[in-house]
Design goal:
With 200 residues, this protein is α+β, with helices and mostly antiparallel strands. Helices cover 30% and strands 19% of the residues. The protein has 2 domains: 32 residues, no CATH class; 117 residues, Roll (SH3 type barrels). The chain is built from 6 helices and 6 strands. It is found in: Nucleus, Nucleolus.
């Protein structure tokens, strides 16, 4: 009948539009089956390149005084809660500083740990005026520590030629500043090698 021919032509044309990548023979083969599965070809979207956000330059950071601590904020008592947070952070990092803990394992974790909030003491130095300085580390840079003392004085102590000690739960660790000339972010990825003798 004429109606069935129109229907057949319509279906064939519909399938051709719906599946442009398919050949006529394959479409005809599909028409002989009971079920027809229509395929969908979505249009490919052009990938948009992400723009990298540029940070401040060193000059801009200095002009904005981003890393400067205001004089009214330079008080030891303000940063004691930071020290308590640091102690808990180290205990969690080392799974508790137990008496049977292996010192070299703890030392290895401390070398990569964040030291902001740690109380450190300068035990050795080529400059005698630095020896004995004790306080909380407020900022760590590549070459210096900024330390707030109990006398509410902000000290900038160079790492080079200085040995620092920090104590937590009876465990004392020594930091040789000359081997520690890295930013905090760089230290976390660095592999430190064990050396027999270390000097200033």
């Amino acid at each position: 009948p004429q109606g069935s021919e129109k229907a057949k032509t319509f279906v064939h044309a519909f399938l051709k539009r719906s599946m442009p990548k398919m050949k006529d023979e394959d479409i005809q083969d599909m028409l002989t089956r009971k079920a027809v599965v229509l395929e969908h070809y979505p249009k490919k979207k052009a990938k948009q390149k992400r723009k990298k956000t540029k940070g401040f330059t060193a000059k801009q950071r200095r002009e904005l005084r981003l890393f400067e601590i205001e004089p009214e904020q330079q008080r030891y008592a303000i940063f004691l809660p930071l020290h308590e947070l640091w102690k808990q952070y180290i205990r969690d990092l080392c799974h508790g500083l137990k008496p049977d803990a292996q010192p070299h394992m703890i030392q290895g974790k401390l070398l990569k740990a964040d030291l902001h909030g740690a109380i450190v003491t300068v035990t050795k130095s080529k400059c005698p005026s630095y020896v004995g300085i004790t306080g909380i580390i407020l900022q760590e840079f590549k070459h210096v520590f900024k330390i707030i003392t109990k006398e509410d004085k902000l000290k900038v102590v160079p790492k080079l030629n200085n040995v620092f000690s920090l104590e937590l739960d009876g465990f004392i660790s020594y930091i040789y500043g000359s081997k520690f000339l890295l930013r905090a972010s760089e230290r976390s990825a660095k592999k430190f090698k064990l050396k027999g003798t270390i000097d200033l």
